[in-house]
Amino acid sequence: MAHDGQAQAPNVYDAEPIPASAMAEIERLLSSGDLFRYTAPEGSPVALLEGEFAELMGARYALAVASCSAALFLSLKALDLPRGAKVLIPAFTFAAVPSAVVHAECEPVLVEVGENYRVDMDDFAAKLLGAGAVLISHMRGHTSDMDAILALCDAAGVPVVEDAAHSLGTTWHGRKIGTIGKIGCFSFQSYKLVNAGEGGMLITDDPELAARCVIMSGAYEHNWKKHPGLQNSYMLWQNKLPLYNMRMQNLSAAVIRPQLPEVAGRVAKGRAGHDRVAERLNQSAYLAVPPPLAPEERAPDSIQFNLTGDWSDADARRFQAEAKRRGITVQIFGLSEDNARAFWNWQFLGETPDLPKTRAMLMRAGDVRLPTRLTDDELDFIAAAIFDAAAAVKG
């Protein structure tokens, strides 16, 4: 059945709403002017958030920062990699990830990604020799084979950092994504499961890495004393490391804290909504939603699908137009002009690497946001629009 009424189309662009319980704390902070995380002798909103997030994730240490990019940068700096060290990243990620590697004065090495959006393990193994670190982006919440990745990296003595910006609430063999590598990094940007507009978090069980990250994040003079534990490590690093000033401020923490108890419910709703749409799309002869790897329990707030069979660029663009006519915007990563998720647009890296598998996937992979607040009727509307648009072009 065709949908022509754009008025019925659900709005997928509004971020997750801020719980009303945040308002009183925001008002208190604004009236007191107490916005800096280190003003209070103890118990600032940022410090409370760090404790709550560490507990939620089962991690020893958590550090709240300005963005996930800041968390990735600090993680690489804390690993004390030599300048120019090679850092493996998946070629399917957001431009901020190679940018964080460049910011840390390291060299990104892009690894092929297959049509299931996950790291190609043959290419990964071939490129691992000589790497200083591996930064695995669980892009759009898709978990690569972490068993294989960790086995190779442990054998080679290469540390793994997880970019879990899209994966808060995802598990692998029941272990929380972000706790599998040396350091896990998360995002609270508006289009994530927890919305603070901007903001990030890193977690680790390693006290030395935690101490170095805290100092470099901007814990100047003796402000590190307001972080629990690690006092010996802090004293060792004070004044020895640069201060990059990537702190989170109290208003952001006040917005995030009441959302943490909502995470489990949002994960369950997001997975149910994703799977409902995926089931419909997989009934099409022209669309395919790749299944997760067996150990993975996802926490999606978007859906990705491939245009399968023989699609020209013109066909794919017509499909986008047909979906748009039905009220749904489909991003095809490789066909959206200047898309920050298409590796050939990362001109700041210099010469574009030859990555035929990733390129082919990006040219035919569709992407649609599915916020966890959508109703079943709204999810069905989206699924029907995509299904019917494919049929209109290829049927």
Please characterize this protein's 3D structure.
The chain has 395 residues and is of the alpha/beta class. The chain folds into 2 domains: 241 residues, Type I PLP-dependent aspartate aminotransferase-like (Major domain) (Aspartate Aminotransferase, domain 2, 3-Layer(aba) Sandwich); 133 residues, Aspartate Aminotransferase, domain 1, CATH 3.90.1150.10. The chain is built from 13 helices and 14 strands. A 7-stranded mixed beta sheet has the order 1-9-8-5-4-2-3, sandwiched between helices. A 4-stranded antiparallel beta sheet has the order 10-12-14-13. The radius of gyration is 22 Å and the shape is globular. The two termini are 13 Å apart. The N terminus is likely disordered.
